[in-house]
Amino acid sequence: MVIVKKYGGTSVETPEKILKIAEKIALSKDEGNDVVVVVSAMGKTTNYLIDLLHKVNDEPSPREYDMIVSTGEQISIALLASALSKLGKKAISLTGFQAGIDTDSTHSRAKLKRVYRGTLRSILDEGKIPVVAGFQGISPSGEITTLGRGGSDTTAVAIAYALDADVCEIFTDVDGVYAADPRYVESPKHIDRISYDEMIEMAAHGAKVLHLRAVELARRYKVPLVVKHAHENGTGTKIEGMNDMEEPVVRALTVDENIVKIVVEGVPDEPGIAAKIFEKLASRHLALDMIVQSMHKEKKNDVAFTVANDDFSEAIQAIKEVKDEVKAENVHFDEEIAKVSIVGVNILGSSEIIHAMFSSIADVGANIDMISSSNSRISCLVPKNKIKEVAKSIARSFNLATNGYVNDD
Ligand code: ADP
Ligand code: ASP
Ligand code: MG
């Protein structure tokens, strides 16, 4: 079998953990598999590097950002390849460039263009284990790029696709995907199997257990994807093709606190205004989420949307540039908000589910600021200081914790 194994930051946070992982990888190699390993930076290294950069410049260029953050993964690959050598395995560390990972030139959130399979294939054919730096690639002009926070998952899936791997295993600090982030809901139910589509909704709305683009790529190219605990034995979660359920069912809730709401107030109610506002944001390749337009009296509208924290400074800059052109009366933003979503099959088709979602938020006295939905998701913006209570209340309504029990602490 060809297996791609990706280890996240917490799984490689100490030399001891790296040695343990090396033993598991060696075992898989001994079983006769072709193994490619992808690793993230150790523990919180990436955060540390970003803080370090901001100590010398609070508005660093995206090029220098990529230059520094990409070093985190380089530490991990050298350590893991050396740990494997110590166990008598032939291993070789590779940067994104060396592994043939081509991206576009959008620093800090580069898109993969292709993965050159030749280098990795010939290393495997020599009986070696390639240990590839996740999260990084190389632009057409030879610049180091990174794929956005959490992007090592995407590196792993792209390599699995390029090598036509039998499975891409994502090892992390939890035994797979749960019905809620364990940091918000105590003892959430374990999900054994989940469809690519549901997982995409979860990843897009806060479940950082998998990088959104990794799941999108896996769905597009039908890469078999599994999430497992790096150091404990468990069943893990399989992410696979179709969902065979038709009945509306809520499978999970997600929380996203890393968002900011931006409101462009008092723009004229006339054709082309929204297009102008969003043109500026599009030219910066910013990912937007909830978008709401509400009408005032006197033919004025407010246009509000949310962006990820990481994109906030660019988004607000873009809005300031267009403020006069769209004759906005004011622009303001709100960081004290969080998004809670329920994800499942056909949920928008069930008015009972919609009602239960809003009731469970009302039950804890939280005000809903914005609502958005798709066939398989309902999201609400609520005050950040209420998010834990809200998550627990929703988990209780939809029976997302084991034994239906949710602690109220
Ligand atoms: P890694 O460093 O291995 O990439 P991440 O921190 O990116 O790990 O992702 C794992 C974390 O994702 C878990 O520790 C958990 O807190 C969080 N998470 C959020 N939602 C979920 C979910 N639905 N199921 C499992 N984990 C989740
Ligand atoms: N080290 C990077 C990050 O912290 C990439 C990753 O972990 O996937 O975002
Ligand atoms: Mg991750």
Concise overview:
The protein is of the alpha/beta class and 409 residues long. The protein has a domain at 2-173: 3-Layer(aba) Sandwich (Carbamate kinase), CATH 3.40.1160.10. Helices cover 35% and strands 29% of the residues.
Question: Could you explain the architecture of this structure?
Answer:
The protein is an alpha/beta fold and 409 residues long. It has a domain at 2-173: Acetylglutamate kinase-like (Carbamate kinase), CATH 3.40.1160.10. It is built from 12 helices and 22 strands. It has helices spanning 15-30, 45-56, 62-86, 96-99, 117-125, 152-162, 196-204, 212-221, 273-283, 312-323, 351-363, 387-397, and strands spanning 2-7, 34-39, 91-94, 101-103, 112-115, 129-133, 136-138, 144-146, 167-172, 177-178, 190-191, 193-195, 225-229, 237-240, 249-256, 259-268, 288-295, 300-308, 330-334, 337-345, 370-374, 377-383. The model has no long low-confidence stretch (mean pLDDT 94). The site of magnesium ion (MG) has 4 residues, from loops.
Helical proportion, percent range: 25-40%
Q: For the record, give the distance between the C-alpha atoms at the N and C termini, rounded to a whole number.
A: 47 Å
Bound molecules: adenosine-5'-diphosphate, aspartic acid, magnesium ion
How would you state the average pLDDT, rounded?
Answer: 94
Number-wise, the strands total 22
Which CATH architecture of the domain at 2-173? 3-Layer(aba) Sandwich
Largest sheet: 8 strands, mixed
Question: How is the CATH topology of the domain at 2-173 named?
Answer: Carbamate kinase
CATH superfamily membership of the domain at 2-173? Acetylglutamate kinase-like
